[in-house]
Each structure stands twice: as C-alpha cells, then as structure tokens.
C-alpha cells in the first residue's frame, strides 16, 4: 500500500531541520565567543576590570543583585545593571571629626599620593622628615630629635608636640602609598585605606589597627618569656626586659603578660581621649627609652611596634594580659572598619581561599606561558589548549571574586546588615 506524504508534513519537517541547524550554529558561535561550551547554570558574562581610580566620578557598571537577594552559590548570581562601589569610595556616612595624619618619611620617599585625600575628609597631614638635610630644610619642617626607632620616633614626637592641641582622631601611617602589609582587599593601598576607613569606629572604640590580617602578629606573636632567639622576630628575645623598662608601673601592679599579639606593622588610628589617658611625660619617657636603649634602630622600633595597642588599650581593661592582645576577627575588621561585609567569618574565609586559588593559578599560568615545565616532544597544540582552559578557569574565578566583593561592599553600606554580621559590641554605627 503506497504511503502518501502530504506537502504540509514536508514543510513541517523542513522547518524542524532548519531550526535545529540554526540553533546549532548559534550555540557554536556563542561557545567560540566565550571560549567554552555553554553549561546549565554557568555564566558567559565578561569580567569587568576593577577600577583603580580613587573616588571616581562615574562608577563602573558591574554585576550584582541587592545584598538581601544574594544567592548562596556565586555561580548562581545573575548580574543585573547596578553601580559598583569603586576602591576609594567610603560606604559610611560623612563625619565631622577633626583628623591629623602623622606621616614619618625619608627625603627619598614620594608622598604625592596625599593629593588623593579630598578636603572633605578633614585630614591635616603632619609629615615628619626623618633624615633632614640641615642645609636644605625649611624652618617650618617637622623633624625628629634622632633617627632611631623607625616610625616610633616620629609618632612619639608628634604626640609630645601636639599633646595640648590634639584632633579628635590621630592616624599614624608609613609614607609609602602601597605596601605588602596594607590591607589586601584594598589593593594594598594606603590612600584607599584612609578613604574607606570608618572613623566612627575609631571614635567609639578609641583605637584601631589599620591592618585587618592577622599574619604576622596574631593571636600570640611575641612570647615574653622565651629563651630562644628567632631572627624573623628579633624583638621577641629582648621584649621581656624592654617591657619592664617601658611599663614599670603596669608590671609592678599586674606583672608581665605571657604574650603580645596584634597585627603588624605599626599603622593605626587613635582617639584624643586614648592618647590623653597617659600624661605627656610618659610619652617623653618612651621616646627617651628609644634614644637611650642599646638596642638598634630596627629592634627598638620593632619593640614599639608591638606595644602601641597596649599603650592605647581601653581603660576598662585592667589586666595586663587582656591589654596585651588586640586581634579583632579579620571579617569584623573589614566589615565594621572598612565596609566589606561578606556575611560571616566562614563566608569571608571562603572568599579568601578562592582569591588565593586564583592567584596561584595566575602564577602557574604565567609560568606555563613562559615555557616552564615544557617537555621535549610535547604536542604544542595540546599544551596551548591546556593554557586556554586555565585562562577560562582563571577568568571565571576572578569574576566570581569581584562579584562577591561587590556584594560585600553593598552589604557594608547597610548599617543593619553590618550590625548583624559583627554583633552589637563591635558595631559602631
């Protein structure tokens, strides 16, 4: 029996075939554009480069829903049009605190980064020249009595000279614009830290180490009773005797603490009241100790580096052991101190781990592109395909890290979310 195929059926089959062919070519083209085959739940959106402009006039457009809508898995985050909060823009309300920035510097150090600090930040810079040229130094130049004790000499000189005319908040930093010991999330930049800092936290808590990362310094870096010399922390071996010389009253009252712990590296902000809880004469005596001690410039400075938090500790802490350790949780420091709120400690640590994996992959990729590990007779096409795969994976990880950081900054801009993350005792408005 002959089979009759209607013309309409032929047309339907032809339409289905054409649709399939067109769909295949569309998918193939998109796969080529994004260097990967589309997969369910994956994102093919190009990563926007992070802006390095400080206090940019026009933010870069970036991905991200509102913080309260944040999904658990970064790969599920579907970007929407929303302005990014660029580095150097504070998420906190403006304040009216008067501020001094105490900045020890050598003649060779470039401090033009100070121009990044706007007038409405209300910061007056007090630059102390550590190595003045007597024949080429203006009379108005701030200097120190002796170049010894690293930054501590300038810090103490500032307090002594301004004790009767202190601002609401004094900020003590080094002169370099970037340094390994500055905060990682703030591109290791001193001006970015100062622009994003929550000065209300300094005013309410009285003292804040500007570095959030624990290593080196926390939780118990200096063992005051050690008998072993560690060249990596020379100050530890002499800290027991130095502590007794610096704090005889405190030692007589409550003994010597077993450990000292605080994030390195002698950059902090402190309120007027915390400075004035000690008489001016004590600061004079501490500066004299630096001058008179047989310890070197480096070691005497390192001793002071790990006692600033003890000097400016809250008067409510009566035990030396309690005053000896200042180690706020990293996610708390970033959240309430700078407005980077990842949700909780675990989420912050997961972000750090992902960022570290991305950096490790970037290093491996760079080495591979330079030919490191290439074996004789290795198929070059296969090798290049492997490099392309790494690039795709790296691009995805970097994009996810950037998106999650933007979620963190938007959470940080919400006082309610910030309070919920850090708790009532740490929250500072």
Count, helices: 15
Structurally, the number of domains stands at 2
Number of strands: 10
Q: Secondary-structure element order, as H and E?
A: HEEEEEHEHHEEHHEEHHHHHHHHH
| Mean pLDDT reading | 85
Cα-to-Cα separation, first versus last residue: 87 Å
What is the structural class? alpha/beta
Largest sheet: 6 strands, mixed
Strand order of the largest sheet: 5-4-3-6-10-7
Residues in helices, as a percent range: 40-55%
- Molecular shape: globular
Strand content: 5-15%
- Give the low-confidence spans: 1-69, 71-81
C-alpha Rg, in Å?
28 Å
In short:
The chain is α/β, with parallel strands linked by helices.
Verbal overview:
Residues 57-79 are annotated as: Disordered. With 429 residues, the chain is α/β, with parallel strands linked by helices. It folds into two domains: 99-334; 340-422. The chain contains 15 helices and ten strands. The N and C termini lie far apart (87 Å). The model is unreliable at 1-69 and 71-81 (pLDDT under 50).
Secondary structure blueprint with pairings:
Layout: H1 7-33, E1 61-62, E2 82-83, E3 99-105, E4 123-129, E5 142-143, H2 151-162, E6 169-172, H3 190-196, H4 199-205, E7 207-209, E8 222-223, H5 234-246, H6 248-254, E9 259-260, E10 268-271, H7 272-275, H8 280-292, H9 297-305, H10 308-311, H11 320-323, H12 330-338, H13 345-369, H14 380-412, H15 415-422
Helix pairs in contact: 2-8, 5-9, 12-15, 13-14
Protein name: (Perigord truffle) hypothetical protein
InterPro entries: DUF3431 (IPR021838)
Region (Disordered): 57-79
């Amino acid at each position: 029996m002959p089979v009759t195929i209607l013309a309409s059926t032929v047309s339907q089959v032809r339409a289905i075939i054409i649709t399939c062919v067109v769909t295949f070519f569309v998918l193939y083209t998109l796969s080529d554009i994004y260097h990967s085959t589309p997969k369910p739940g994956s994102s093919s959106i190009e990563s926007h480069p992070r802006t390095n402009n400080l206090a940019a006039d026009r933010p870069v457009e970036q991905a991200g829903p509102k913080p309260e809508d944040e999904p658990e898995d970064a790969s599920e985050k579907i970007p929407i049009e929303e302005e990014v909060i660029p580095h150097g823009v504070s998420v906190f309300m403006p304040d009216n605190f008067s501020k001094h920035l105490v900045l020890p510097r050598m003649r060779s150090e470039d401090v033009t980064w100070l121009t990044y600090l706007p007038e409405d930040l209300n910061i007056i810079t007090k630059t102390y020249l550590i190595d003045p040229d007597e024949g080429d130094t203006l009379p108005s130049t701030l200097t120190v009595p002796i170049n010894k004790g690293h930054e501590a000499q300038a810090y103490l000189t500032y307090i002594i000279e301004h004790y009767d005319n202190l601002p609401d908040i004094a900020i003590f930093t080094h002169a370099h614009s970037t340094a390994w010991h500055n905060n990682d999330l703030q591109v290791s930049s001193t001006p970015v830290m100062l622009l994003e800092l929550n000065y209300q936290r300094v005013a309410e808590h009285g003292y804040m180490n500007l570095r959030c990362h624990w290593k080196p310094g926390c939780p118990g870096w200096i063992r005051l009773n050690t008998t072993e010399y560690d060249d990596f922390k020379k100050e530890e071996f002499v800290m027991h005797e130095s502590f007794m010389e610096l704090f005889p009253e405190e030692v007589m009252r409550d003994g010597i603490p077993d450990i000292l712990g605080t994030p390195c590296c002698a950059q902090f902000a402190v309120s007027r009241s915390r400075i004035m809880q000690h008489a001016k004469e004590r600061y004079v005596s501490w500066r004299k100790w630096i001058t008179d001690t047989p310890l070197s410039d480096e070691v005497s400075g390192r001793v002071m580096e790990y006692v600033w938090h003890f000097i400016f500790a809250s008067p409510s802490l009566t035990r030396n052991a309690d005053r000896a350790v200042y180690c706020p949780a990293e996610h708390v420091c970033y959240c309430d101190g700078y407005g980077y709120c990842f949700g909780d400690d675990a989420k912050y640590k997961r972000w750090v781990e992902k960022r570290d994996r991305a950096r490790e992959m970037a290093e491996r990729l760079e080495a591979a592109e330079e030919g490191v590990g290439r074996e004789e007779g290795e198929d070059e096409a296969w090798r290049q395909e492997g490099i392309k795969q790494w690039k795709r994976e790296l691009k995805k990880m970097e994009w996810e890290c950037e998106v999650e950081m933007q979620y963190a900054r938007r959470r940080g801009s919400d006082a309610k979310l910030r309070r919920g993350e850090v708790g009532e005792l740490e929250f500072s408005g």
